[in-house]
Amino acid sequence: MRVAVLGAKVIGATLGRKWVKAGHSVMFGVRNVTHPDVQSLVRDLGGNTSAGTVAEAITFGEVVLFAIPGPAMEETIRTYSSLLRGKIVIDAANKVGTPVMNSLSEFSRYAPEAIAYRAFNSLGWENFEQPRFGDDIADLFYCGPAGTTQATIETMIHDIGLRPIRVGDLNQAATVDAVAGLWFALAFGQKKGRHLAFKVLTRQAS
Predict the structure, then answer these.
(1) Suppose 107 and one of 4, 47, 116, 118 were both cysteines; which one would form an S-S bond, judging by CB atoms 3.0 to 4.6 Å apart?
(2) pLDDT of residue 66
(3) Secondary structure of residue 131 in the 3-state scheme
(4) Residue 47's pLDDT is what?
(5) Which residues span the domain enclosing 117?
(6) How many domains does the chain have?
(7) What pLDDT score was predicted for residue 205?
(8) What is the structure's pLDDT at 204?
(9) Cα–Cα separations (whole angstroms), residue 62 to 49, 83, 115, 133
(10) Is 15 helix (H, G, I), strand (E, B) or coil?
(11) pLDDT for res 62
(12) 191 phi-psi bin (left φ>0, alpha ψ -120 to 50, beta other)
């Protein structure tokens, strides 16, 4: 699968690295393609990896991950709205300190023909790099449409090494964001550290 990763900082780089190892082709969309960190990342990841402008990456990708700073989301979505038509887009950015952390309303407003999901926003990058806790793997909560594209998203999550837990359609975005709030409260507020994740446990009725 062709994956556009917008942003090559720690979240984008970690997810991109895992997807390359899983056999996907990844293009990082960045403002400065010649930046030494970007070039080093591309060299390290090898032949299935490239870097380009944001427009080039979106055009390349079947799936587009937004791993850019939250304050930049609206302008980016608006600027490249026509290129997002028909793409599977993943909103992984948190607009921390605002009433709504996600940018799904901006996708709906500027790129209504994109197929949007909210995912990869509720855990620290450490849990993407090391998703296993002993014999258990961490769960990743996400929301978005059911159907064919859901299978694509769940493949992307599995390829990171996480177990996907769909909370529901996009009307459950606040629930997914609440998980992110819980992660922040425990990791930082309670000083439990960033390598902290969640697991859904169920018991079959006897």
Answers:
(1) 116
(2) 98
(3) coil
(4) 85
(5) 2-189
(6) 1
(7) 77
(8) 82
(9) 15, 11, 11, 31
(10) helix
(11) 98
(12) left
CATH code of 173's domain: 3.40.50.720
Whether residue 150 lies inside any domain: the answer is yes
Q: Is 93 helix (H, G, I), strand (E, B) or coil?
A: coil
Low-confidence spans in the chain with pLDDT less than 70: 206
3-state secondary structure of 32: coil
Residue 143's closest CA among 112, 164, 113?
164
| Residue 196 is assigned to a structural domain of this protein | no
The C-alpha atoms of residue 21 and residue 77 are separated, in whole angstroms, by 28
Output phi, psi for 82, to 5 deg. Answer: -65, -30
Give which of 180, 68, 71 is closest to 121, Cα–Cα.
180
Phi, psi of 192 (to 5 degrees): -90, -5
pLDDT of residue 183: 97
**Residue (of 100, 46, 52) closest to 73 by Cα position:** 100
Note the pLDDT of residue 173: 98
Please calculate the CA angle 15-147-138 and round it to the nearest 5 degrees.
35
Contact between residue 170 and residue 143 where contact means Cβ atoms under 8 Å apart: yes
Is residue 189 within 8 Å of residue 202, measured between CB atoms? no
Sign of CA dihedral 36, 39, 42, 43: negative
* pLDDT (0 to 100) of residue 95: 96
Q: What is the pLDDT of residues 106-146, one digit of tens each?
A: 999 999 999 999 999 999 999 999 999 999 999 999 999 99
